[in-house]
Amino acid sequence: MNKLKAAALAAAATLAAGLALTMINPGTAAAHGALLTPGSRTYLCYLDGKSSTGEVKPTNGACQNAAAVGGTQPFYDWFGVLRSDGQGRTRGFIPDGALCSGGFTKFAGFDAPRSDWPLTHLTTGAAHSWRYSNWAAHPGWFYLYVTKDGYNPNQALTWADMEEQPFLSIDHPPMSGPAPDGYYYWNGNLPSGKSGRHVIYSVWKRSDSQETFYGCSDVIFDGGNGQVTGINNPPTTPSPIPSASASPSRPPSPSPSAASPRPSSPAPSTPGPATPSVPSGACSATYTPVGTGWNNGFQGEVKVTAGGSAITAWTVKATWANGQSVNQSWSSTYTNATGSTTFKNVAWNGSLGAGASTTFGFLGNHSGTNNPPTLTCTSP
């Protein structure tokens, strides 16, 4: 055997051994999962958009907007709303206005404050069979929070909207089956004394790494029994929960702790009344502040109205007097520049008949005074 042939055989043997080792010990897999009952926003929007071709084509308005903001890949990755550095942290770690994405910008479209997200109908205080996808299973604790009375789905979700303590905590629950159809399961009552629209907020804190998962499930306490409305493809009725078995014995874990409080910042001034733009002829735009803001954050809504003729596209330029900037929008795309933000329509809301209107919203940051912007509207 010559030297070249011997070297080639040795290299092949080394490669084969390496592949075999990889197959035997693939390393630590990242966990993945989300609430199935009641379904998270990402999960139910994925179900809504599933088509026979495998493409995601949402029919729900809020899900359509999430696709316009971040594309459809987050729908396929509905089980991936995570922070690898989470360590179970909640308040002071996940920013206000970004609870549903866990601060993971890939899923920012699911933070949009809207009243048309898919809904699960429930009965306050009732016994409930909880299921949480184990797409990539790992041990851990699960914590479930709910919004306070008076929650408004049309305002950005902040920690001030959430009850401070979880209404249910679960220590290393059992599993039923492997991914993609498997899940963790447990029984536990729904929060009591609730009525109307709310968000159930889930936190999955792994016990074998810092990785933590977050998710919003939109629910309405109206006497329902888990029915889902607002989506094109309702989830199939899950199989009964297996007979109860004791969870593995684990050391207790406290509720996820908050990070150090954020530095104090000047209280935002109350925005002034809605400021209409000077119509350009093709369209006009009117700004309305939503709520009173939080820390250095605020939320706004803009109404775009076509002029005397139909339009097929619109552009709204917001000129800021106090250095404000936008960090998220829905039902529009945006581009920040020094002293201004330019918003453009998305695919489904650019065409307006004469005198017809559409709205879009956004979240922004400011320092000091937060005066409303001056708006101009042009088409296209």
From TrEMBL:
* This protein's UniProt keywords: Carbohydrate metabolism, Glycosidase, Hydrolase, Polysaccharide degradation, Signal
Q: Where is the composition biased (Pro residues)?
A: 263-276
Instruction: Kindly give the PROSITE patterns that the UniProt entry links to this protein.
Output: CBM2, CBM2_A
- Region listing for Disordered, in residue ranges: 225-280
Determine the domain of life of the protein's source.
Bacteria
Start and end of every CBM2 domain? 276-380
Protein's UniProt name: Chitin-binding protein
User: Which GO terms are recorded in the biological process aspect for this UniProt protein?
Assistant: polysaccharide catabolic process
Encoded by which gene?
Answer: cpbD_3
Q: Name one GO molecular function term.
A: hydrolase activity, hydrolyzing O-glycosyl compounds
Q: Residues of the signal sequence?
A: 1-29
InterPro entries, sorted: CBD2 (IPR001919), CBM2/CBM3_carb-bd_dom_sf (IPR008965), CBM2_carb-bd_dom_sf (IPR012291), CBM2_CS (IPR018366), Cellulose/chitin-bd_N (IPR004302), GlcNAc_Chitin_IntDeg (IPR051024), Ig_E-set (IPR014756)
**What Pfam families does the record point to?**
CBM_2 (PF00553), LPMO_10 (PF03067)
